[in-house]
Amino acid sequence: MILVMIIAWGVFALQITVKFGALTKMAPENRFNDIGRRIGRLFKTGFGQEKLIGRSRERGSGIMHAFIFWGALLIGVRELTLMGEGFISGFQEYLPLLGSDSILGYIYISVYNIAEVLVLSMVLVALYRRIWPKPERLELNWEGIYVLLFIGSIMLTDILFDAARLNLVENYGHNLHYLNSTEYGAEWQWAPFSILVATVLNVFGEGGNAFFYHFGYWGHVASMFLFLNVLIHTKQFHEITALPNVFLGSLDYPHAITPLTDLEDETLWEEGRIGVNKLEHLTWKQGLDLFSCTECGRCHDVCPTYLTDKPLTLKRFNQSLLYHLRNEESTLFLKGSTDEEKTLVGDIIHPDTLWACTTCRACEEACPVSIEHVPRIIGMRQNQTMMEEAYPPEMANTFKGLERNFNPWGIGYDQRADWAEGLEIPLMSETNTETEGQSGEIDVLMWVGCAGAFDSRNQKIARATASLYQKAGVKFAILGSEEKCTGDLARRSGNEMLFQMLAGENVETLNNYNIKKIVTSCPHCLNTIKNEYPQLGGEYEVFHHSQFIQQLVDEGRLPIGSNLKDTITYHDSCYLGRYNQEYEAPRKLLNKSGNESLREMERHGIESLCCGAGGARMWMEETIGSRINETRAEEALSTGASTVATACPFCMTMISDGITAKGKSETVKTKDVAEIVLEAVEGS
Ligand code: SF4
Ligand code: SF4
Q1: 307-354 residue pLDDT tens
Q2: Nearest C-alpha to atom 2 of ligand 2 is from which residue?
Q3: Cα-flanking dihedrals φ and ψ of residue 337, to 5°?
Q4: What are the backbone angles phi and psi of residue 594, rounded to the nearest 5°?
Q5: I want to staple 283 with a disulfide (CB 3.0 to 4.6 A). Which of 29, 73, 548, 577 is the partner?
Q6: Average confidence (pLDDT) over 34-59
Q7: Would the pLDDT of 138 be above 60?
Q8: How far is residue 303's CA from residue 293's CA, in Å, rounded to a whole number?
Q9: Pocket mutation for ligand 1, best pick of 367, 370, 372 (most atoms within 8 Å of C-beta)
Q10: What is the model's pLDDT at position 395?
Q11: Ordered domains of the chain (ranges, CATH)
Q12: Alpha carbon nearest to ligand 1 atom 6, residue
């Protein structure tokens, strides 16, 4: 046993040194802050498996995997006791809390006995699913099969070993007990499946059972150590890295993208180290993410690009990077860098794949091991956009519009307040800010956003929203031509320099007016101002208009009655929902306005499907596969609702275009939550 352990653990230690050593050569990042919150997350997402059992889609297979995980944890403890058994017979007896005088020891025997049989059954089901029904997200590959066979043999040999031991003790007087007390009885009484298998093995007599006892033990030890040393090169490596990966997940994310603070450093530009285009440009945590992928495929099942036949599937995106990392890990570990010539975008990841992502985060919410995909994608886009100027050609005009007129359409910035003509909305520059700033004359700043200011359909929403504020007696103002695009689309398309320019100028304006409270109509503006402007010194209380209107309704400042005839379904915006966890405010308003409850789409709330506009995709052509907005429009139409409510200007454009493309624009309307509330208020 000593020899086996030295060889097995020695080989394992060598292999793991190379893997983790490679991670230390990647970009640094602090993931050891706020340990208390991290432990909480470890218990909820890691041990609690919330992402597998807490989702309505694929709950059955989620529960199955959660059981495999819990079983594996328990069996991990069992492996330790079995290793001890190799040195001292009845080793468990000597362990604190698990000995004969503790009920815990007996419960542990019961639970692992049942867990082993459950895991064995789950392995058989998983093998069956991979070979016969073959769900699309699971691929039939040998790696998956032999991993399952290894797990199966670890379980089976242990069951054999325990059952043969029972027969040897009970029928042939061998002294091989783990636990035996007058209070709790012999351990067998707590192990129902051992009794069952022992009854079958009994027919083989003492010699046969002695054989199964040794075969079970050494077969188990061999399978376990082989598995340990083979798994490190397979997706099963996640069994070692997944829990640390959950523990080390970002505490700031999903709200904010980490800013690039060294854009002034010329050597970084000379060395091509702006953004990510080599393995060593990824942070060590992003490397750990790659090792932690279980290849379950949940990410591509929910990805709008995969669902519409585009080349991006996160599982394969991960796999391509992971295989590259596996190939390069020893070079990276020994030399500190990878092959000079090979770049991530182009050689490993196709540009179409990189630019397909809408940054909707559905994949991240579905991922059981909390892999952070979007920052990695944005890092690669930063390199492509700023270093290589290799962005989709249609983005050139968008960037130009942002640089010259501070909006993506490039419309003259002096026309930014034209939508408000005749509405008597004061400009911030007209309010008295000399002494108290905002608190002197206004309650809130209405942040209009580029779409509300310049897009004719969204201008109507801005007017409806302002009208609601006026009816509720809110003192508010707008910035007019002093407002600039928040920079969300520049940042998500990798133009961090442009983002920092726009955001910096907005923060300066807001701070000059001493603004404290902001209400936005656009969830992208909400996310950027609320979560990313603090990186530039802009700290404000920021609300989405659905949240603010909900407050006004609650305070009785907007009388809203259930008087609308429309039947309503609601499309969640990714940047309001998944990024800012606001699912309830729009729903409460819509439920109050309509005379029947919302008709939810099958994918809604945290599992909602993106409209296709996020991540600057709104300004890029969609030429591959079918259109995301039409797929989402179909889902909305299938509810039979007469109105599709949205809470984001880009969702509004995408969904209404989708409904038009489906030939339903005459019968099904798309309205913003604010417009629906205004109708309900005016009709009440
Ligand atoms: S990234 Fe996450 S969801 Fe996607 S295959 Fe890997 S583990 Fe599963
Ligand atoms: S963020 Fe959304 S679009 Fe991008 S890969 Fe994830 S699910 Fe797909």
Answers
A1: 999 887 777 888 899 999 999 999 999 999 887 778 999 999 999 999
A2: 360
A3: -150, 165
A4: -85, 160
A5: 29
A6: 83
A7: no
A8: 16
A9: 367
A10: 97
A11: 33-231 (no CATH), 266-387 (1.10.1060), 405-550 (3.40.50), 568-683 (no CATH)
A12: 293
